[in-house]
């Protein structure tokens, strides 16, 4: 695929994502979508913090 083809595909994908985001932000389901995203972000933060704590504990054990 040439660089110009990649640029066109990237533009089309970006435009589609923009349209989808705009649609959801202007729809009645905006609050539901925002709540779902917040919930998923919180779950991801919890997983990250658990992994970070495990890594720190293992590092402390190795260095002790």
Mind telling me the C-alpha Rg? 20 Å
Number of domains: 1
What would you call the structural class?
A: mainly alpha
Shape: flat
Number of strands: 0
End-to-end separation: 53 Å
Can you count the helices? 2
Low-confidence runs (pLDDT<50, min 5 residues)? none
- In percent, how much strand structure appears in the residues? under 5%
Protein name: YtxH domain-containing protein
Organism: Chitinophaga defluvii
Keywords: Coiled coil, Membrane, Transmembrane, Transmembrane helix
Task: Give your account of this protein's structure.
There is one protein chain. The protein has about 60 residues and is mainly alpha-helical. It is about 90% helix and about 0% strand. The protein contains 2 helices and no strands. The longest helix has about 35 residues. The mean pLDDT is about 85.
SSE arrangement:
Blueprint: H1 3-26, H2 30-63
Offer a concise description of the structure.
With 64 residues, the protein is mainly alpha-helical. The protein is built from 2 helices and no strands.
Notable characteristics:
64 residues, 2 helices, 91% helix, single chain, mainly alpha
């Amino acid at each position: 695929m040439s660089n110009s083809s990649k640029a066109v595909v990237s533009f089309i994908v970006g435009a589609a994502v923009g349209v989808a985001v705009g649609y959801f932000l202007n729809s009645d389901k905006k609050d539901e979508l925002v709540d779902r995203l917040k919930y998923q972000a919180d779950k991801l933060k919890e997983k990250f913090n658990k992994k970070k704590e495990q890594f720190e504990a293992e590092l402390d054990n190795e260095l002790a």
